[in-house]
Specification:
The complex is a heterodimer of chains A (112) and B (112). Chain A is built from no helices and eleven strands. Chain A has 112 residues and is mainly beta. In chain A, a hairpin with a 2-residue loop joins strand 7 and strand 8. Chain A is globular, with a radius of gyration of 13 Å. The termini of chain A are far apart. Chain B is an all-beta fold and 112 residues long. The chains are: A mainly beta (112), B mainly beta (112).
Chain lengths: 112, 112
């Protein structure tokens, strides 16, 4: 079974803090993704990566950055957290040449 | 801009009935189609994939694809209260960037 693990299920941070969300997958997938999900807005792609040290902007990259130093790990960084970044964050991975995505359990982030 | 449209619902059906969930997409080059189920507070999980016109059955679930009409549907037979969830339609172009476009989801409620 594919396993995508997100480091935290719930996180509470203060405005202006730097926030790290970690994601690890155990299936040697090339492709990894970060989404945020908000009521009524669906899944929105923040960043994705198709290889180590490679990253591409998604639909809403502003205020976020990512890091992929190892194939299995993809980190999302909120440089200076703001209240409008309060959301559910979902990490996903997919195997090469496949569009099927496997999601982690999600991190519900609250920025106060 | 690739679009995937779903009625947000909620779609309410009695236990034992057939639930019919629909999805339309804008990109005629789409070749891969997926249905994900997302329980409240949980992450999406893949339940069906379909790649060619026609029907694909898996247990109580049937996915139907009509590329000419740019329409994909999911039928759930003998609906159970445990089927109550949000169902996300996702569409992708094979050979592209392997990033599916997700619809915003349809909320299904199966009442006893």
């Amino acid at each position: 079974d594919v396993k995508v693990t997100q480091s935290s299920r719930y996180l509470v941070k203060r405005t202006g803090e730097k926030v790290f969300l970690e994601c690890v997958q155990d299936m040697d997938h090339e492709n990894m993704f970060w989404y945020r999900q908000d009521p009524g807005l669906g899944l929105r792609l923040i960043y994705f990566s198709y290889d180590v040290k490679m990253k591409e902007k998604g639909d809403i990259p502003e205020g976020y950055s990512v890091s992929r130093e190892k194939k299995e790990r993809f980190s999302l960084i909120l440089e200076s957290a703001s209240t409008n970044q309060t959301s559910m964050y979902l990490c996903a991975s997919s195997p090469p040449a496949k569009n099927i995505q496997y999601f982690g359990a999600g991190t519900r982030l609250s920025v106060l | 801009q690739k679009e995937v449209e779903q009625n947000s619902g909620p779609l309410s059906v009695p236990e034992g009935a057939i639930a019919s969930l629909n999805c339309t997409y804008s990109d005629r080059g789409s070749q891969s189609f997926f249905w994900y189920r997302q329980y409240s507070g949980k992450s999406p999980e893949l339940i069906m994939s379909i790649y060619s016109n026609g029907d694909k059955e898996d247990g109580r679930f049937t996915a139907q694809l009509n590329k000419a009409s740019q329409y994909v549907s999911l039928l759930i037979r003998d609906s159970q209260p445990s089927d109550s969830a949000t169902y996300l339609c996702a569409v992708a172009t094979s050979g592209g960037s392997y990033i599916p476009t997700f619809g915003r989801g349809t909320s299904l409620i199966v009442h006893p």
